[in-house]
Amino acid sequence: MDAANDTRQRIITAAQELIYTRSYNEVGVQEICDHANVKKGSFYHFFPSKRDLALAVLDQSQAFMHETIIKKSFLDDIPPLARIERFFTTIYEFHKQVKENTGRIFGCPFGNFGCEMSTQDEDIRSKVDNILSTSEKPFVKALTEAVERGDLPAIDTAATARAIFAYVEGIMLYAKTCNDPELIRELGKRALQLAVPVNMQ
After folding, report:
1. What region does 25 belong to: left with phi over 0, alpha with psi -120 to 50, or beta?
2. What is the pLDDT of residues 46-56, one digit of tens each?
Protein backbone atom coordinates (compact mmCIF):
# COMPACT_ATOMS: atom_id res chain seq x y z
CA MET A 1 0.00 0.00 0.00
CA ASP A 2 1.48 3.37 -1.01
CA ALA A 3 1.70 6.30 1.40
CA ALA A 4 -1.42 8.05 0.09
CA ASN A 5 -3.57 4.94 0.33
CA ASP A 6 -2.14 4.19 3.76
CA THR A 7 -3.08 7.68 4.99
CA ARG A 8 -6.60 7.38 3.59
CA GLN A 9 -7.02 3.96 5.15
CA ARG A 10 -5.82 5.17 8.56
CA ILE A 11 -8.41 7.97 8.46
CA ILE A 12 -11.21 5.54 7.62
CA THR A 13 -10.17 3.05 10.29
CA ALA A 14 -9.82 5.76 12.93
CA ALA A 15 -13.27 7.11 12.11
CA GLN A 16 -14.76 3.61 12.09
CA GLU A 17 -13.42 2.91 15.58
CA LEU A 18 -14.45 6.26 17.07
CA ILE A 19 -17.91 6.45 15.51
CA TYR A 20 -18.76 2.84 16.33
CA THR A 21 -17.88 3.20 20.01
CA ARG A 22 -19.51 6.63 20.37
CA SER A 23 -21.56 8.29 17.62
CA TYR A 24 -21.21 10.13 14.33
CA ASN A 25 -22.19 13.54 15.67
CA GLU A 26 -20.04 13.28 18.78
CA VAL A 27 -16.80 12.60 16.92
CA GLY A 28 -15.18 15.59 15.20
CA VAL A 29 -12.76 15.81 12.29
CA GLN A 30 -9.87 16.93 14.49
CA GLU A 31 -10.32 13.98 16.82
CA ILE A 32 -10.37 11.61 13.86
CA CYS A 33 -7.17 13.17 12.54
CA ASP A 34 -5.51 12.89 15.95
CA HIS A 35 -6.57 9.25 16.26
CA ALA A 36 -5.22 8.51 12.76
CA ASN A 37 -2.08 10.58 13.35
CA VAL A 38 -2.65 12.71 10.24
CA LYS A 39 -2.96 16.43 9.63
CA LYS A 40 -6.34 17.98 8.94
CA GLY A 41 -5.14 18.98 5.47
CA SER A 42 -4.67 15.30 4.67
CA PHE A 43 -8.21 14.59 5.81
CA TYR A 44 -9.69 17.12 3.39
CA HIS A 45 -7.41 15.93 0.61
CA PHE A 46 -9.16 12.56 0.71
CA PHE A 47 -12.60 13.52 2.01
CA PRO A 48 -14.37 16.76 1.04
CA SER A 49 -16.55 16.44 4.14
CA LYS A 50 -17.14 14.33 7.21
CA ARG A 51 -20.21 12.93 5.45
CA ASP A 52 -18.01 11.60 2.63
CA LEU A 53 -15.85 9.89 5.24
CA ALA A 54 -18.95 8.40 6.86
CA LEU A 55 -19.91 6.80 3.55
CA ALA A 56 -16.43 5.28 3.27
CA VAL A 57 -16.71 4.02 6.86
CA LEU A 58 -20.01 2.35 6.00
CA ASP A 59 -18.43 0.66 2.98
CA GLN A 60 -15.57 -0.65 5.11
CA SER A 61 -17.92 -1.81 7.85
CA GLN A 62 -20.02 -3.65 5.27
CA ALA A 63 -16.93 -5.38 3.86
CA PHE A 64 -15.84 -6.35 7.38
CA MET A 65 -19.28 -7.77 8.21
CA HIS A 66 -19.35 -9.76 4.99
CA GLU A 67 -15.96 -11.34 5.63
CA THR A 68 -16.27 -12.02 9.37
CA ILE A 69 -19.99 -12.68 9.82
CA ILE A 70 -21.98 -13.27 6.60
CA LYS A 71 -19.45 -15.30 4.61
CA LYS A 72 -18.59 -17.48 7.60
CA SER A 73 -22.22 -18.04 8.63
CA PHE A 74 -23.73 -18.88 5.26
CA LEU A 75 -21.26 -21.44 3.95
CA ASP A 76 -23.27 -24.27 2.39
CA ASP A 77 -21.55 -26.98 4.44
CA ILE A 78 -24.67 -27.35 6.64
CA PRO A 79 -28.42 -27.29 5.92
CA PRO A 80 -29.89 -23.87 5.11
CA LEU A 81 -31.79 -23.27 8.36
CA ALA A 82 -28.71 -24.26 10.34
CA ARG A 83 -26.84 -21.49 8.52
CA ILE A 84 -29.27 -18.93 9.92
CA GLU A 85 -28.77 -20.39 13.39
CA ARG A 86 -25.00 -20.22 12.85
CA PHE A 87 -25.35 -16.54 11.92
CA PHE A 88 -26.75 -15.78 15.38
CA THR A 89 -24.01 -17.84 17.01
CA THR A 90 -21.39 -15.94 15.02
CA ILE A 91 -22.66 -12.48 15.93
CA TYR A 92 -23.02 -13.60 19.55
CA GLU A 93 -19.39 -14.72 19.65
CA PHE A 94 -18.24 -11.49 18.01
CA HIS A 95 -20.08 -9.20 20.43
CA LYS A 96 -19.17 -11.36 23.41
CA GLN A 97 -15.51 -10.83 22.51
CA VAL A 98 -16.08 -7.09 22.12
CA LYS A 99 -17.68 -7.00 25.58
CA GLU A 100 -14.74 -8.89 27.08
CA ASN A 101 -12.28 -6.47 25.44
CA THR A 102 -14.06 -3.18 26.13
CA GLY A 103 -16.72 -3.79 28.75
CA ARG A 104 -19.42 -2.60 26.36
CA ILE A 105 -21.77 -3.80 23.63
CA PHE A 106 -21.85 -1.23 20.83
CA GLY A 107 -24.60 -2.76 18.71
CA CYS A 108 -24.89 -2.87 14.93
CA PRO A 109 -22.88 -0.13 13.20
CA PHE A 110 -25.53 0.19 10.49
CA GLY A 111 -28.40 0.32 12.95
CA ASN A 112 -26.48 2.92 14.94
CA PHE A 113 -25.92 5.06 11.86
CA GLY A 114 -29.51 4.60 10.74
CA CYS A 115 -31.00 5.61 14.07
CA GLU A 116 -28.78 8.66 14.36
CA MET A 117 -28.62 9.97 10.81
CA SER A 118 -31.59 8.79 8.74
CA THR A 119 -33.55 12.00 9.38
CA GLN A 120 -30.47 14.22 9.02
CA ASP A 121 -28.64 13.09 5.89
CA GLU A 122 -30.26 11.43 2.89
CA ASP A 123 -27.02 10.03 1.46
CA ILE A 124 -26.18 8.27 4.71
CA ARG A 125 -29.78 7.05 5.08
CA SER A 126 -29.73 5.66 1.54
CA LYS A 127 -26.37 3.96 2.08
CA VAL A 128 -27.55 2.27 5.29
CA ASP A 129 -30.80 1.22 3.61
CA ASN A 130 -28.83 -0.39 0.79
CA ILE A 131 -26.52 -2.20 3.21
CA LEU A 132 -29.43 -3.58 5.22
CA SER A 133 -31.24 -4.71 2.06
CA THR A 134 -28.08 -6.42 0.81
CA SER A 135 -27.66 -8.12 4.18
CA GLU A 136 -31.05 -9.79 3.77
CA LYS A 137 -29.99 -11.68 0.62
CA PRO A 138 -28.19 -14.62 2.30
CA PHE A 139 -31.30 -15.13 4.45
CA VAL A 140 -33.51 -15.18 1.34
CA LYS A 141 -31.21 -17.76 -0.26
CA ALA A 142 -31.17 -19.96 2.83
CA LEU A 143 -34.95 -19.79 3.27
CA THR A 144 -35.54 -20.53 -0.43
CA GLU A 145 -33.32 -23.60 -0.19
CA ALA A 146 -35.15 -24.68 2.97
CA VAL A 147 -38.50 -24.49 1.16
CA GLU A 148 -37.11 -26.44 -1.80
CA ARG A 149 -35.81 -29.15 0.56
CA GLY A 150 -39.14 -29.37 2.34
CA ASP A 151 -37.68 -28.06 5.60
CA LEU A 152 -40.23 -25.22 5.50
CA PRO A 153 -43.69 -24.87 3.94
CA ALA A 154 -44.13 -22.50 1.02
CA ILE A 155 -43.55 -19.00 2.38
CA ASP A 156 -42.71 -15.54 1.08
CA THR A 157 -38.97 -15.93 1.53
CA ALA A 158 -38.12 -12.28 0.84
CA ALA A 159 -40.63 -10.99 3.39
CA THR A 160 -39.55 -13.60 5.92
CA ALA A 161 -35.88 -12.76 5.42
CA ARG A 162 -36.68 -9.10 6.03
CA ALA A 163 -38.59 -10.00 9.20
CA ILE A 164 -35.67 -12.08 10.48
CA PHE A 165 -33.15 -9.35 9.71
CA ALA A 166 -35.37 -6.76 11.39
CA TYR A 167 -35.38 -9.11 14.37
CA VAL A 168 -31.57 -9.11 14.24
CA GLU A 169 -31.51 -5.32 14.41
CA GLY A 170 -33.94 -5.36 17.33
CA ILE A 171 -31.80 -7.88 19.21
CA MET A 172 -28.71 -5.74 18.64
CA LEU A 173 -30.46 -2.67 20.03
CA TYR A 174 -31.68 -4.63 23.02
CA ALA A 175 -28.23 -6.14 23.69
CA LYS A 176 -26.61 -2.72 23.40
CA THR A 177 -29.13 -1.12 25.76
CA CYS A 178 -28.76 -3.91 28.32
CA ASN A 179 -25.01 -4.25 27.65
CA ASP A 180 -25.51 -8.01 27.57
CA PRO A 181 -24.31 -10.23 24.68
CA GLU A 182 -26.19 -13.19 26.14
CA LEU A 183 -29.41 -11.66 24.79
CA ILE A 184 -28.07 -12.25 21.27
CA ARG A 185 -27.58 -15.93 22.00
CA GLU A 186 -30.88 -16.43 23.81
CA LEU A 187 -33.12 -14.44 21.46
CA GLY A 188 -31.33 -15.76 18.40
CA LYS A 189 -32.61 -19.25 19.22
CA ARG A 190 -36.14 -18.02 18.50
CA ALA A 191 -35.45 -16.35 15.16
CA LEU A 192 -36.57 -19.27 13.00
CA GLN A 193 -40.02 -19.11 14.54
CA LEU A 194 -40.52 -16.14 12.22
CA ALA A 195 -40.22 -18.51 9.27
CA VAL A 196 -43.06 -20.78 10.40
CA PRO A 197 -46.61 -19.70 9.51
CA VAL A 198 -48.72 -18.84 12.56
CA ASN A 199 -51.20 -21.64 11.91
CA MET A 200 -48.34 -24.17 12.09
CA GLN A 201 -46.78 -22.95 15.35
Report:
1. alpha
2. 999 999 999 99
